[in-house]
Amino acid sequence: MQPCTISQKIDRPISVVFDYLSDVANYSEFTEHFLAEWRMTREETFGLGAGGRFREDLPFSRFGWGDMAIVEYAEPRLIVLAGRSGKYNRIRTLTVLQLSDDGNGGTELELTTETRPVLPSDKFLEAIAQNRARKRGWRKSLKRLSRILEHNRDRGRRATIAGGARKPATGLRA
């Protein structure tokens, strides 16, 4: 898939938006309409290496499970998520979140997402329906993210680790 870029203005300081996006467990709150059934891949859900596994709800997708993890983290401007999806996890994915100050005390969030299908069948399915559905899903997600951070509403369920916390401070940022 060619990279697609979506922008969203959020009327919150850049540090607040960056802290929220740095915790992968928060992603299920604003992406649950097309990335569902989130499970965390490790106990620490914040920062470099934190990741999650989810089910993508895309047209013609029989193997909708995917994962992503934070592979690059430059506070307070950049978060890069890399992962895999599709049958046998053969489709590589890359999502880049760039934050900038909008000059009025708010944040301009720019999300760029890209997939690398391997087989011709994967490329065909992406071309006929999945690219458009993924772009629509991320556009709606960024609008929900804006509502969550600005007004604390339209909040979905936060992802957790199976079985609950393993230590008293799990999930708390130090």
Automatic annotation (TrEMBL):
Gene3D superfamilies: 3.30.530.20
CDD domains to which the protein is assigned, alphabetical: SRPBCC
Activator of Hsp90 ATPase homologue 1/2-like C-terminal domain segment(s): 14-150
Pfam family, one: AHSA1
Family: Belongs to the AHA1 family.
Name of the protein described by the UniProt record: Unannotated protein
